[in-house]
Each structure stands twice: as C-alpha cells, then as structure tokens.
Write a structure and sequence with these properties.
heterodimer, A: mainly alpha, 16 helices, about 65% helix, B: alpha+beta, Beta-lactamase, 5-stranded antiparallel β-sheet, elongated, FtsW/RodA (chain A), lipid-linked peptidoglycan transporter activity (chain A), transmembrane helix (chain A), cell cycle (chain A)
C-alpha cells in the first residue's frame, strides 16, 4: 500500500482539501431538487411551477453560503456531508411542497382546523435557520474539543430538554405523544436537540470513565459485569428512556437515546458485555412498557398484521387508527412498485395527517418507487458512513466518541423511522432527518452535520510539517 | 477504539441493508398484492380520475361523465335515460363497483386497457388529458324505447335480436333503476342503493338475461323443431295420433288442453291454437335425449356471454318420461331467459342458423380509432333450413289466424311469425301466470328482427286476460315495427 492515499479521510501529509469536489457535488444537490420541483409542477398543474425560480435561488443561496463558510472555516472537512444533507433537505422541501398541493390534505386540514397553511414555506424558513445553525457551529466552534468542558452542563441541559414537555402549560400533546413544547407561536421538539447535547455528555463522560468501566469489573458467567457505582449512569439513562416512553409516549426517542448510549459505551470500553447488558435492559424495558401502555400495544398490533388488526380493532379506537395508518402506508409503498408513479402522481396523501412529517418516506416509496427509496436509503447510508469515517479518522478520543455517537444516533433514527414506516419494526413516530416537515428536526440535524464537519475538518487537517531535522536520514514514514 | 468502531460501522451498514431488503420485499415482492388489496382505494381513484369513455347507441352516448370536483373521485358517471338503458349499461358506482358492460369493458372505458397503450403514450407527449375509449353497442334506440315503453309499469323483459348477425337490438327489463342515482359514494348514493337492494320488486335484476322463467307454450317451437329434426313429423299438416285427454306417462293425469280441437290435430294446427296434448306427446315420442340435444343446440343448459353473462336456461337432462312430456310444453323444470327465447326465434327466422348474440359492436380508442370490432359468429344449426322454413310457416299461421294476431304488423311484404305462451307457475299455479310472446318479422330480404317478450305480472289485468297474445304480443309488435321502420 502506498503511503499517500487520497481515498481515506485519514489525513495524509498532503491531504487535498476537496473543496472543489464539494462544490461540484453541491451543484448536483441543488439541480436535482430543482428538477424534481419542476417535475411536481408539471405533473400536478401541467405547467412550470411559479415558485421554481425562487425555490432554486433559495436553495442555491443556502448551499452557497454553507459552502463558502466551510471553505473558509473548515477547509479540510469531509466533502460529502454538506452535499448529501443539502440534497436530502432539498428533496424534502419538494416532497412537502408536493403534499401541500394535495386537495385531500387541504380538505382534511380545513375540516379539522378551519384553515390550511402550506408547510413548504415554513420548511424553507427552517432550512434557512438550519443552515444558519451550521454556519454558527462552524464559526463558534473552532475546535470540537471545547465541548469537553461542558460535559456535565450538557447532562443537565439534556435532562431539562427531555423533561420540558412534561411541564404543564408548556408541553403540548399532539396525536398522543407529548414530545412538543410551545413557545410563542412555535412548537419545538426538544428531543431532537437533546440528541446532540446528550452525545456531547456521553462523549465527555465516557472519555473520562472508559478505563474504569472497561477494566474494573468482575467476571460472571463469561460476562464482565461492571461495578455498581459504574453502573449508575447506565441505569439512569435506562430509567430516563423509560420515563420518556411512559410519560411522553415517545417510543422512538427513548430507543434512540438508549441505543446511542450503548453504542458509545461499547466503542469507549471495547467490551461486548455492555452490548449484551444493554440489549437485556432494552428488552426488559420494552416488555414492561409494552405490556402496560396501550399506545405501544396498538403500535405493536399494527406492526404484526395491520390488515388483520384493522378488522379486529374496535371501531374508532386508537388501535384502529394506528392500524389504518399502517395499512395506508404499506399500500402506498406497494403501489409505488419498482419505479414509482412519478412525483406528484401518487396517492400517498391517503395516509392523512402526518403525511408530510412522520410518513413522508411513504411518498418517496409511492412516487419514486423501489429505486427512489433505495437511493434515499443509500444517501442516508453515505452520511452515516462519512460520519463513522470521521470518527475513525479523529485523533482524539472525545472527537471519536462524539462523531460516533452522532452518526450512530443518525443511523438509529433513520432505521427506526424508515423501518417503522416500512413495517420492519413497530412504528415510533419520529421524523426522517432532513426529509420530514418539522423545524426542530431540520435545525438539529443541520447542527449535527455542522459538528461532524467540524470534527472531520480537525481530523483531516494536515499536521504541521515537522521542523526539518538536519540529522535525519532518508527514512520512510510508516503509518500504523 | 478503532476495532469496536469498525464493528459499529458494520452494524450501521447492516441496519441500512435491513432497510433495503425490507423495501425490496415490500415494493417488489409484495407490490402486486398490496396494489390489488381490496382496501386500496387507488384502483377506484384511478378509475374515476379521468373522464370515462362512453357507451354509445346509434352514434349517441347513453352515458356521460360529470366532474364532481371531489378530492377522491373526480369524475362521476351520469346516464341518459338511465332506467331504460340500465340492462344494457349496468352501472359504474364509486362506492358499489360496476356491473355488466361498465364492468366488462372497464379497461377501455377508463383508458387503462393495454390496447390503449399507444393512445396513452401519445397523449403523454401531446399533453392531452387522459380519457377513456368508447364502447359502441349494437342496440337500436327506437326498438329499446318501444320495448321499455311497451313494458311500462308492468314487470317483464324484452330481448330483440337481428337474426342474421346475432346483434342485440333491444334489451329491456322492468321495473328498472337509474344507475345514476348511486354512481357517487356519498350518503344519498348509499341510500339509493339500499332502497334498490331492499325493493321487493328487485329493480336491479336484469330480467332479460339473469332471470329464468318457465317458458310455457313458447317452448313448443323447440319441440316442433325436435319433432321435425328427428323425423317424427314429416308433414306438418298430417294428423298426429293424439287423443284428446292424452295421458301423461307415469301418471294418471291426462294432459289438459285450453284449446279446442286438439284431438289428432296436425302439428301446424296444434301450434296455431297451442295444443298441450299434441306437443307433450310429441316430446314423449321424440324422447328425452333428442329433446335435450335440440334444446342445447338452441343454447339451453349453458350460460351465454354476449359479453354480459346470461343465466343458463334449463332443459332437464334427467327428467323421467312424464317430466320430459311436461318439459316439452315448457313446464316441469324447463326454464329460460328471455334472451334464450329470442335466440330460438332468431335461429328459426334465420332459416336454422343460430348466430351468437352480442351487444358490443365496436371498441374505440379516445381518438375514435377502432380497436376491436365484433364479427358475427355462427353458434350452431339447431334445425335444417327446410325445417326452419316449415316452422316459420306454422308461426306465421299463429299470427295471421291463431293466438298471435295482435302482433301482425300489417306491412306489405313483411311476414310476421310468432308464438304465444302463458306460463303457469307457483304452487298449484296460484300465482299470476307469465305472458310470453316470441315473434320475428321477415321480408324477402331476410329477417331484420326476432323478439322475445315476457310480462311477469301486470297489476290491473284480470287473471283470465293474461295471455301471451293479449299482453306480450303488442309489445313485440311495437319493437318489430320500430326496427323495421328504422331500417328502411
């Protein structure tokens, strides 16, 4: 193997910055959604949509600003993360705009709320705020290791964020899940932000405690059991996850946090026993909640056999609603077939409420078909892959853990949402990153990309060239 | 930390892989099943998303499409003279599926048929809105109107065929329904549907095709054909060896005649006045198997598709001698659709050649380009030309001097042959009898029309006055007149 390889993100001595690659990819990431936008307009109205120029200009502007900021303040960052996120966000905007045109959803909204507000303009605004968030992260966070200082503040912040929806008067119950808070005219999903903050806490905590957790343990039946005092934080996280599940009816978030924690614990300690323990606790928690919470029970029933459940569930019950939703989603996917019906020509709006948020992936399935869904899954896969690569490349344990935690959380979220919508696992009601309608989600995920870009920039930044040593002989640098 | 990192990376890869596999399972393996699932509204949405093609009679559409502005089903089916044409069109309802031509030719009408692929592709480039193709029927609007008007408030059915081709000219059934009254999916559609379902007069029943009636005396034509074909009768004017009060085999009862002068009556005379004893004995002489053979050549014991399905008419294949004798005069288990009797009449009028009945003449693409034209098809030859002409002679006697004088068209050069029937039914014949009439008109150029009429029950008619000649013959006459007039 040659010493200098440009295919890895592990910075070789003369690592190219790849900023121009990023620019070219960004151009694609802007052009593709603009064509998709045109496609929807032609399919629905038969003419070029009026907002196309504005949409194209807006997306170009956002991508351009993000690119310039990266070029200036994170010149060695991974070149794929920004274009991938831009493409997903742009396509998400198109899909949301497409659902805005659905007369059925307009009708439904008018009958339920009296008015209909299109979601796409809001989402455009959230995307702009998201990009601003990315810019903010890159400007303010010159070195990700600074975050280490805020380990315990992060923990407090995360707990506050997670429990905020339970505060009376502040939390809002939307379709049975108490994961929202209302501030002024806006509703925020604090869980999305808690994801980031928790990753910071875990990284800081585990970096310090990893040796204690890894080594000071007793062997029991082939497993390394940690000491009781080291078990504390794990049990705390487990308990908090359960609390979220029980009191906020949020299966997805609790799964996400617990999964993220177990992954990071495993990476930090290199002990498989943590995974076994984590799985056991997850199963125990799931069984305990699943056998008591009706909310979870109906989701499980809808997962096992939605068509059958639709027949047996009592009319008008929560379960019937969940099962109906699930059957609609499955039929949406089925109707898409291999190539899909074409953007704007499907009937995924039959799903009803949340067609543009929780179930937006069904629109991809129906209108872009198997081919489109696989493309989207691979795009997400690429983001995750670049995240893991960043983690591998990072030189400091904190950065490694943080990058892994964030990409792991991203992977879990994609899996939980897509798997739920496609009926692989019970539906949890989370949003597809970048694709789904929702401010918190878009903003938080842009911040996540921002942190990954920052870590990757640090990781790929060439080391300062060593001072020439006059005594040195001609030696070859052999890297591990 | 890199070793567990790589493992976690593999785990994340497996998560994505699981999603990919699941998606293939969902969108490739199960796609058809999900797509065709009865809960999937997409088929219905697609069906009503574009303007449906029309069903056409004499160049004019008898159906239409209205844009209802609904967010689920955009276009709604409308009908011109719905009740009159319902037995032809069937219905296309957003909530209650479709029937008959609307169902059978759904692919053409919606424009989804593979044969319209070229049209669809073309309109994709020209930017035209998708619409369905048209179904051109063989029906004759004047004849249909005459039939429907003739039946009026009575319960019954009329089928008229063009003997030389098998084209259906009229297909009426009363009481009827308006398919437009439930073509949507709203409450009022459901109410209209429920009301029709619960109506004890069964207005949704297509009596012309789906109801089988005892044919009574009109069946004697078939028995006559069997007698001639089997050679039991060679001279229609020769006396038959039939005593008055002929005893039914395996029974002690004698056959009752309503007509006078049936003892030893010739076949010609027996058909003219409708002698039960002569025909029952003839059926017995011919034998069950030969009777079954002849009846089946006419189309009995088999469903007919034209392309709408018609119920199979019945001639009992396992009857004993007594049953066979009774079957020969259209009683016992013999039962027939009005279409079947029209086919019998048409075969005789067409000199023994039975043409397969059909009512869809052409299928047209939205561009009015012809996709398919139905060619007349010979179904069978139940009687020889000579024997057919003998039966024609006898049937013309019935109209000129017998029980069917009410059907006489009185047109120069136009001969009319017919046969009346009054079929008793119910326990102990307690119900009001069915009045039958079959007839054809024929000129030197051939026969333009054969018709079968049944009037099930007619309020306000004295029981004694219910006869084929009195009730059904005038309707047949009106239909034949309409056809003959529109043809000249």
């Amino acid at each position: 193997m040659s010493v200098v390889t440009n295919t890895t993100t592990i910075g070789a001595i003369e690592a190219p910055s790849r900023r121009n690659t990023e620019l070219v990819l960004l151009a694609f990431a802007v052009v593709i959604p603009v064509f998709a936008y045109l496609n929807v307009g032609l399919a629905i109205d038969g003419k070029v949509p009026a907002g196309m120029l504005g949409y194209g200009a807006g997306l170009t502007l956002l991508a351009g600003v993000a690119h310039l900021v990266v070029r200036k303040w994170a010149p060695y960052a991974d070149p794929l993360l920004l274009p991938l996120a831009t493409l997903l966000n742009g396509m998400g905007l198109v899909l949301i705009w497409r659902l805005d045109q659905s007369p059925r959803l307009i009708d439904l909204a008018k009958r339920s709320y009296g008015t209909f507000n299109p979601s796409a303009p809001n989402q455009m605004m959230y995307s702009a705020i998201g990009i601003a968030m990315l810019v903010g992260v890159l400007l303010l966070l010159k070195d990700h290791r600074v975050l280490q200082r805020y380990t315990y503040i992060s923990m407090v912040a995360a707990l506050v964020l997670l429990l905020l929806p339970l505060v009376p008067g502040l939390g809002a119950d939307v379709f049975g899940a108490k994961i929202w808070i209302r501030v002024g005219g806006f509703s925020i999903q604090p869980g999305e932000f808690a994801k980031l903050v928790l990753a910071v806490f875990f990284s800081g905590y585990l970096m310090v405690k990893r040796d204690a957790l890894a080594l000071a343990s007793r062997r029991f039946m082939g497993l390394y059991l940690p000491r009781g005092r080291d078990l504390g934080p794990i049990l705390t996280i487990w308990a908090v996850s359960l609390l979220i599940l029980v009191f906020e009816n949020d299966l997805g978030t609790s799964l996400l946090f617990f999964g993220m924690f177990v992954i990071m614990l495993y990476v930090a300690t290199e002990r498989t026993s943590w995974i076994v323990m984590g799985l056991l606790m997850a199963v125990a928690g799931a069984v305990a909640v699943g056998s008591t919470a009706s909310h979870v029970q109906s989701r499980v029933a809808a997962w096992i056999d939605p068509f059958e459940c639709l027949k047996t569930a009592p009319e008008g019950s929560n379960m019937a609603y969940a099962c109906d939703q699930m059957t609609q989603v499955l039929m949406s996917f089925g109707s898409g077939g291999i190539l899909g019906t074409g953007l704007g020509e499907g009937n995924s709006d039959l799903i009803g409420f949340a067609a543009n948020s929780d179930f937006i992936f069904a629109t991809v399935g129906e209108e872009l078909g198997l081919a489109g869904v696989m493309v989207f899954l691979l795009l997400y896969g690429l983001i995750i892959e670049r995240g893991v690569r960043t983690s591998l490349a990072a030189r400091d344990p904190f950065g490694k853990l943080l990058a892994m935690g964030l990409s792991g959380a991203f992977a879990l979220q994609v899996f939980v949402v897509a798997g739920g919508v496609m009926g692989l696992i019970p539906l949890t009601g989370m949003t597809m990153p970048f694709l789904a309608y929702g401010g918190s989600s878009v903003i938080a995920n842009w911040a996540l990309i921002g942190i990954l870009i920052r870590i990757s920039d640090t990781a790929r930044r060439p080391a300062p060239s060593p001072a020439p040593n006059p005594d040195a002989e001609m030696t070859q640098v052999v890297r591990p | 930390m890199n070793k567990p990192l790589r493992r976690v990376a593999i785990f994340c890869g497996l998560l994505v892989l699981a999603l990919l596999v699941r998606d293939n399972w969902l969108q490739y393996v199960r796609a058809d099943e999900l797509n065709a699932h009865p809960k999937n509204k997409r088929v219905q949405i697609e069906r009503y998303a574009s303007e449906r093609g029309n069903i056409i009679v004499n160049g004019k559409p008898i159906t239409g499409s209205a844009n209802s502005g609904d967010t689920y089903y955009q276009f709604k089916r409308t009908y011109v003279d719905g009740p009159m044409w319902a037995p032809v069109t069937g219905y296309a309802s957003q909530a209650f599926d479709a029937s008959q031509i609307e169902k059978i030719e759904d692919g053409i009408l919606t424009g989804n048929d593979d044969r319209l692929f070229f049209d669809r592709t073309l309109s994709m480039f020209t930017g035209e809105k998708k619409r369905g193709g048209d179904v051109v029927t063989t029906l004759n609007a004047a004849a249909q109107k005459a039939a429907f008007k003739g039946l009026g408030s009575k319960t019954g059915a009329v089928v008229a065929l063009e003997p030389s081709t098998g084209k259906v000219l009229a297909l009426a059934s009363t009481p009827s329904y308006d398919p437009g009254s439930f073509s949507g999916y709203h409450d009022k559609d459901a109410k209209a549907w429920q009301a029709l379902e619960q109506d004890k007069n069964k207005p949704k029943l297509n009596r012309a095709l789906r109801e089988i009636y005892p044919p009574g005396s009109v069946f004697k034509v078939v028995t006559a054909a069997a007698a001639l074909e089997s050679g039991k009768i060679t001279d229609i004017n020769a006396a038959t060896d039939t005593p008055e009060g002929w005893k039914i085999p395996l029974s002690t009862k004698p056959m009752v005649n309503h007509a006078n002068g049936c003892a030893n009556a010739s076949l010609n005379e027996a058909l003219r006045v409708s002698c039960n004893s002569v025909f029952a004995k003839l059926g017995d002489d011919v034998g069950r198997d030969k009777m079954v053979e002849t009846a089946e050549k006419f189309g009995f014991n088999e469903q007919q598709f034209m392309p709408v399905r018609a119920e199979a008419s019945v001639y009992d294949k396992k009857a004993d001698r007594g049953g066979n004798a009774l079957s020969s005069i259209g009683q016992f288990n013999t039962a027939t659709t009005p279409l079947q009797m029209a086919m019998v009449t048409a075969a005789i009028a067409n000199d023994g050649k039975l043409m397969k009945p059909y009512m869809v003449d052409e299928l047209r693409a939205p561009s009015t380009e012809l996709i398919k034209k139905t060619e007349p098809e010979e179904m069978s030859r139940p009687v020889s030309q000579k024997n057919a002409q003998l039966i024609q002679q006898m049937m013309e006697n019935v109209v000129s001097t017998g029980t069917g004088t009410n059907a006489d068209l009185g047109m120069p050069g136009m001969k009319v042959g017919g046969k009346t029937g009054t079929a008793q039914h119910g326990e102990q014949n307690s119900k009001r009898p069915y009045a039958w009439f079959i007839a054809y008109a024929k000129s030197a150029q051939g026969s333009p029309v054969a018709v079968a009429v049944i009037v099930e029950d007619s309020e306000g008619t004295n029981r004694e006055d219910i006869t084929g000649g009195g009730l059904a013959a005038p309707i047949a006459k009106a239909v034949m007149k309409a056809v003959v007039k529109s043809g000249s």
